[in-house]
Design a protein that fits this description.
Blueprint (H helix, E strand, L loop, with lengths): L1 H13 L4 H8 L3 H8 L7 H9 L10 H5 L1
């Protein structure tokens, strides 16, 4: 979660947006942005993906077979 937090915070700052502005553009609540940037672990995957899509990224579940290859 730390990598996700750092990625979102860094990219948001690169585009010069406040947390409030970024939340509005991503279509999520301000609390979602705050939780992501704080590295919270109890996040809704759909909300996280709305945020990541702003940067052309997405999270997906990893198949245990894929991770061992």
């Amino acid at each position: 979660m730390k990598q996700l937090a750092e990625f979102v915070k860094q990219r948001r700052k690169e585009v010069n947006l406040t947390q409030e502005e970024f939340a509005e553009r991503a279509g999520v609540a301000l609390t979602v942005i705050r939780k992501i940037e704080q590295g919270k672990t109890n996040l809704n995957m759909d909300k996280v993906n709305l945020v990541l899509r702003m940067f052309g990224h997405e999270l997906a579940p990893v198949n245990s077979r894929e991770s061992s290859e």
